[in-house]
């Protein structure tokens, strides 16, 4: 890139930034349909902005969960039916990217649970993919209509406390089942002693995703900052949370699963007699 090109890009960026600032200063004040307190309260409790699903009033996060699950399911079917059978010894870009992704999760599973890595790698692949794509889902701004007739953008499924609890409890049950299969009652006992694990996982996911939502709402409700800046803040927070929360959950699940499934070697009586 030449100096002239860099200078043009810098001038263009400065002009765009100046235009945004001028628009923010000169923009007329617009009355919001709800106050910032009401918006933040509803983001946590979902008391007013509910959506009708077959006659039942449900949280928007449930609709988001159904949508992202359907999209991922269809994408997996397409890849399995039309793409994987055409894999070659010399991979193309998509095949190489998919194989690297599978190797990444497989490596994490082998490092933390060398005795039973196969099931773990499959679970953390599914859970990590769901967390990442369900987090960036809110960037697409898919619209829905509430029961009161107000349009809203569907939020990330895990920004709903119920979705976060479901993910935390599912991961905990997966670890418990792995411990029972590997070590019977000892595996169950090792898992039960970490009874706070589903709570910590659930509130870690919920708190991280909700904080990004609340910061974006706060920036949006400040009139001077409500043009342009919420987009930047929302995208940065969403991408960071998607990467960080995916990494944190797969590492925690791998570590606790490795502990629960670690084989216990029984000391033989002959060995004890020889030592005596």
Characterize the structure shown:
- There is one protein chain.
- With 276 residues, the chain is mainly α.
- It has one domain.
- It is built from nine helices and four strands.
- The strands form two sheets. The protein has a two-stranded antiparallel sheet with strand order 1-2. It has a two-stranded antiparallel ribbon with strand order 3-4.
- A hairpin with a 2-residue loop joins strand 1 and strand 2.
- Helix 7 runs antiparallel to helix 8.
- The radius of gyration is 24 Å and the shape is globular.
- About 2% of the residues have low confidence.
Element pattern in H and E = HHEEHHHEEHHHH
What is the number of helices?
9
Oligomer: single chain
- Number of DSSP strand runs: 4
Low-confidence stretches: 27-31
Shape: globular
Helicity level, as a percent range?
Answer: over 70%
Category by helix and strand content:
mainly alpha
Radius of gyration, whole Å = 24 Å
């Amino acid at each position: 890139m030449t100096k002239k090109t860099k200078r043009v890009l810098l001038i263009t960026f400065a002009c765009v930034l100046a235009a945004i600032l001028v628009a923010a200063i000169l923009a007329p004040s617009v009355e919001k349909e709800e106050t910032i307190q009401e918006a933040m309260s509803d983001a946590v409790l979902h008391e007013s902005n509910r959506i009708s699903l077959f006659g039942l009033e449900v949280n928007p996060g449930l609709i988001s969960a159904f949508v992202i699950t359907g999209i991922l399911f269809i994408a997996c079917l397409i890849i399995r039916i039309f793409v994987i059978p055409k894999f070659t010894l010399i991979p193309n870009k998509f095949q190489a990217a998919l194989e690297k992704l599978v190797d990444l999760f497989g490596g994490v599973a082998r490092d933390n649970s060398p005795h039973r890595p196969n099931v773990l790698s499959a679970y953390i692949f599914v859970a990590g993919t769901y967390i990442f794509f369900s987090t960036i889902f809110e960037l697409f701004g898919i619209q829905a209509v509430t029961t009161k007739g107000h349009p809203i953008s569907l939020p990330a499924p895990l920004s709903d406390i119920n979705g976060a609890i479901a993910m935390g409890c599912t991961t905990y049950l997966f670890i418990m089942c792995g411990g029972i299969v590997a070590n019977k009652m000892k595996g169950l006992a090792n898992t039960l002693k970490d009874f706070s694990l589903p709570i910590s996982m659930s509130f870690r996911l919920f708190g991280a995703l909700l904080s990004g939502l609340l910061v974006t709402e706060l920036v949006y409700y400040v009139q001077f900052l409500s043009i342009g800046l919420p987009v930047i803040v929302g995208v940065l927070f969403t991408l960071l949370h998607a990467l960080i929360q995916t990494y944190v959950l797969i590492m925690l699940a791998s570590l606790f699963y490795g502990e629960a499934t670690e084989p216990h070697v029984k000391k033989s009586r002959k060995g004890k007699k020889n030592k005596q």
